[in-house]
Amino acid sequence: MLQTVSTILLFALQVLADPPGGSFTPRIVTKGYGNWSEAYEKARAFVCDLTLTEKVNLTTAHGTGVAVGYSFGVIPRKGFRGLAWDDSPTGVRGSDYSSAGAAGLNLAMSWDRELIYLQMMANGAEHKAKGLNGALAPVVGPLGRAPEGGRNFESYSPDPYLSGIAFGESIAGMQAGGTIAVGKHYILYEQEHFREVRETNDFGYSPFNITEPYTVSCDDRTFHELYLWPWYDAVQKGMAGVMCSYNQVNGTQTCQNDHLMNDILKGELGFQGFITSDDGSQHSGIASALAGMDVTGPGETSPNGIDGLGISFWGPNLTLSVLNGSVPEWRLDDMATRIMAAYYYLGQDHDFPDLNFGGGGTYPTFGFIYPNAKLDYQQINFHVDVRDAHADVIRAVGANSITLLKNVNNTLPLKKPRQIAVVGEDAGPSMYGPNGCADRGCNNGTLAMGWGSGSTNFPYLVDPLAAIQARALRDRTEVQYVLNNFFAKTQIDSIVQQATVSLVFVNADSGEGYIEIDNNFGDRKNLTAWGRGDDLIKEVAANCSNTVVVIHAVGPILMEEWIDHPNVTAALFAGLPGQESGNSLVDVLYGDVTPSGKLPWTVGKTREDYGTDVLYAPNAPVPHINFTEGLFIDYRHFDKAGIEPRFEFGFGLSYTTFEYSDLHIEKLSSPAVATPAASYAPQTTFNPQICPSSKLNPSDYTFPSTISSIPNFIYPYLNANVTYTSNAAAPSSSIAPAPAGPQGGPPELYAPLYSISFSLKNTGEVSGQEVSQLYVNLGNGEPIRQLRGFNKTMLAAGVEKTVTIELRMRDLSIWDVVNQEWVDVTTLGTTVELWVGASSRDLKLKGEIAAAGGYYQAAAAKTATATTLATSTV
Ligand SMILES: *[C@@H]1O[C@H](CO)[C@@H](O)[C@H](O)[C@H]1NC(C)=O
Ligand SMILES: *[C@@H]1O[C@H](CO)[C@@H](O)[C@H](O)[C@H]1NC(C)=O
Ligand SMILES: *[C@@H]1O[C@H](CO)[C@@H](O)[C@H](O)[C@H]1NC(C)=O
Ligand SMILES: *[C@@H]1O[C@H](CO)[C@@H](O)[C@H](O)[C@H]1NC(C)=O
Ligand SMILES: *[C@@H]1O[C@H](CO)[C@@H](O)[C@H](O)[C@H]1NC(C)=O
Ligand SMILES: *[C@@H]1O[C@H](CO)[C@@H](O)[C@H](O)[C@H]1NC(C)=O
Ligand SMILES: *[C@@H]1O[C@H](CO)[C@@H](O)[C@H](O)[C@H]1NC(C)=O
Ligand SMILES: *[C@@H]1O[C@H](CO)[C@@H](O)[C@H](O)[C@H]1NC(C)=O
Ligand SMILES: *[C@@H]1O[C@H](CO)[C@@H](O)[C@H](O)[C@H]1NC(C)=O
Ligand SMILES: *[C@@H]1O[C@H](CO)[C@@H](O)[C@H](O)[C@H]1NC(C)=O
């Protein structure tokens, strides 16, 4: 019996609609989420009733406490318990009885909007059920400029369109789960090396100590068309929080970059929520407030970021800055309003659970409420099980993201093999357990998650060997294994020579810059498999004519040493699947799920083929990284430079075959001209006179006699009397509030202009899903091909369906740096070529959209043509 993903999903959806724990909200219900004006009205009413120090409390984490610093805005007078948040994109970081989901990488490999939404809805629901108002997730920066980038796996794909869809669905899902999605990291944060002074100098991996985090140069067009692109999707989907990143851009820290935060994010994109710093990414008090940062992480006061010492760039410093006029009071009102608007937007003023665990890795039952002060020892973890039926969604993501790279003569699916040999450390459990190293900071046993703050604790980890054994026993298959990559040649040779099929497992890990493994300082130092992986595969292949390679990795690995070996009959890329790893793999190995993943990046033949890399040695005390390649990263570069990849972007095989035919291009409306953002009436809610100016007495901001001060706690109060002078005066640095445009930019950008339809037929023997991909050539110096649409379609064997993909104005637009707006290229006289295919190089159908006439003229209806290409190879 073929169990399709739809069955699993249906099951999952039924469970979701009627959850045992009651924490799931079905997709259509968006109560308390989706109306910013209402949220702003409530926020304004709340904030205008606050005193100066109460508002400051909202903006500044108190630096110690139950959620280890991630606690804001305790306002006793209003009975407001404050807000708490925690990482991560894979689950609730540092908790127990919560799920460990697949990485963002796998969400991208699935190309499945519904699964992305569902896993992230589960993630949001779990954060909420633990009592967390926000989750520091999902991640779209790094985008993945260099394949070595340590945190690429937390994010989706170097293709901005795929990333935008995945990021948008993730945001919508998490917020439907009830928690504020804090999208991160904003922006141009593409490597771990030199992101922080303290970290870099402590590790000492540079020849000399750096003085500031690296700075990135990136031209405006590249910035808009690649790195900023997915943020449009997120804002349009209602993202309520953003985290600014560690790096500098054009010599200014992102967290005090007026252009990036005020003008672009809050202005051009119409972002309505708040911007928070990362741990140590705030580098100033006044400048960050004026540039648009709204919330600060725990206790940061030096460029090196020092946590837990009870000092802060904000807190009392912000109180003082408002009192002496350095930061206008409206800016503080705006900060507080944005934070509270996010809270109301998510409907958190009703029935929100209390924080019921310690957060930040403290999952023992008892602990200090104020850990830095070692005060108030009590029960801090109530071990609430928040997992619901999320395991089903995670298993479905794992199975439907696995990407089949090679499958000679239908080696897979397995058909009751007589004997299986399982080889490689990556196939089995770690002897230290799945959570044996803090923040997954070691690579032992099977790899199902990268390291750093994008990790979470595994409630269990189904390793491949366990799942294969359980499945194989049903067929009376004999299962032998060797889990040692280094010293077991004799044992390996002996089992693989006997086996009907040998499954050899290899991996490659990476993570966040504060952890180093085997000289990988977050970023990968090479693109090969770890731990003698290549040699292991070659050893098995030399002795077994039916060798299947399974790869768990954070990104592409080089496969040239073995991929063409005649005894390597199949290869699967499984990414980082999370807790259900082995089950997801078995679903595909045995054909219960037909593989349908496609690569979200290119697998090159050499490292140099990519044309981009991490900067590993500082080129100055403030390392400078210039994105000179512009738009040409990943497949855009391979295509332009004429480099043959091993496996191209979008590639992935199936157990069945598909036929594409009959392309139709239908014009839906006239190509539009982007209306400049400035011509829209500001939609926000922002108003410099948010609240009437506070009347302040020293008693409103000096330390109250009624509170006994907890050591290392960040209070909003001043210890000395300060004369309140110039607050009402205009600030000397004439900062103006950004005129916020519509949410997600001009609405025309999202208007569908063309409907592209074609026939897709399953011509094989089993049902399966195909990801059909739409590529365009926009001329004007743009890449030869870029993805601008995709559809994942389930088809039973023999069935044919019409698939439709819409092209929106954004999809046909380039960024005009002179006029600072998006322009549909057909209005520039460009004829757009388009292709539909099974990958970026397996193009099946070709069409074109004719130029629409002169620049800035609303176009008359124009012709569109379509042809079928000679069928190319699969
Ligand atoms: C600020 O928060 C702290 C706890 O985090 C609380 O003790 C204090 O009363 C709050 N201050 C105001 C003015 O609400
Ligand atoms: C770099 O800084 C670290 C401490 O942060 C110090 O131990 C080391 O000596 C410094 N190295 C150089 C080359 O200055
Ligand atoms: C960096 O500065 C250059 C030169 O002023 C400008 O063209 C570019 O848009 C800036 N990049 C970003 C990302 O702000
Ligand atoms: C205020 O900020 C400065 C850094 O600008 C820091 O040295 C100082 O400790 C902060 N004060 C408090 C009370 O946190
Ligand atoms: C695949 O099967 C065909 C027909 O049985 C055979 O000729 C061919 O050698 C096989 N290829 C491999 C790589 O095993
Ligand atoms: C565990 O993994 C680390 C690398 O992450 C390696 O150095 C160490 O040898 C491994 N330990 C064992 C017992 O395999
Ligand atoms: C690449 O790095 C990994 C992890 O540090 C290491 O195990 C492997 O041996 C390296 N590959 C090569 C070819 O040196
Ligand atoms: C393929 O495997 C067989 C053992 O089944 C072995 O004899 C042969 O040498 C292998 N081929 C290669 C190219 O290693
Ligand atoms: C970055 O590289 C571009 C293209 O080579 C160059 O025009 C620009 O001046 C460089 N920017 C910096 C800040 O060096
Ligand atoms: C603040 O001023 C009042 C009145 O001038 C004085 O009594 C009090 O001691 C001052 N407090 C501090 C902390 O300087």
Automatic annotation (TrEMBL):
GO terms for molecular function: beta-glucosidase activity. Its EC number is 3.2.1.21. Pathway: Glycan metabolism; cellulose degradation. It catalyses: Hydrolysis of terminal, non-reducing beta-D-glucosyl residues with release of beta-D-glucose. Keywords: Carbohydrate metabolism, Glycoprotein, Glycosidase, Hydrolase, Polysaccharide degradation, Signal. The keyword Glycoprotein applies. GO terms for biological process: glucan catabolic process. This is beta-glucosidase. The lineage of its organism: Eukaryota, Fungi, Dikarya, Ascomycota, Pezizomycotina.
